[in-house]
Amino acid sequence: MKAYGKLLLVIFTVFMLAGCGKEKPDVSIFMMDDQSDPAAVSEQLEKTLQDKLGPDLKVQVIASPLYNLEKLMVEYAAGGNDIILLPEGDMKNYGKMGAHTPLDDYFDPKKYPSGVFASKEVKDDKTVDNTEHLYGIPVKDMKVFQDLKYTPDKLFVTIPVSAKHVDNAVKAIKALTE
User: Fold this and answer.
1) Which of 70, 103, 116, 169 could form a disulfide with 82 if both were Cys (CB 3.0 to 4.6 A apart)?
2) What does pTM read for this prediction?
3) Helix (H), strand (E) counts: the chain
4) For the segment 122-169, what is each residue's pLDDT rounded down to a tens digit?
């Protein structure tokens, strides 16, 4: 039993040290699609976006090869992503819980009408938010994804309210649209 405990301690220590010293990204992107595999373009997306943003902003793209609703919940709950690409239905469901940053101040809602909706979030005072905002931009309308030939019809880019680098996320989304 003692040997087992020591082995667990060694394994734990190795995992802890493995995470030390790893450079944190300035903008972290998580991709999940229920119609295709975003992992097929994630490396090229990271490289292209890194080239567009330059060396001052470190980009990290993580793609889930399989659609898994529980994985998506964990990604939202963990709060480690500045941008999330997800299917329209999920975007609207999470929007109802107030999980997205409105993008109206950064992008023209008239240009992306399919990403505009009222969150219907129930506020603390029990009122319902019926104000429409731009919460997501369709991937199919973004130049970088068009160049990568990855344009799923119902996939959207959004910024979660838990994003730590909103300004960097906006810069990244603007770079994706140009």
Assistant:
1) 169
2) 0.81
3) 6, 7
4) 778 888 878 889 999 999 999 999 999 999 989 999 999 989 999 999
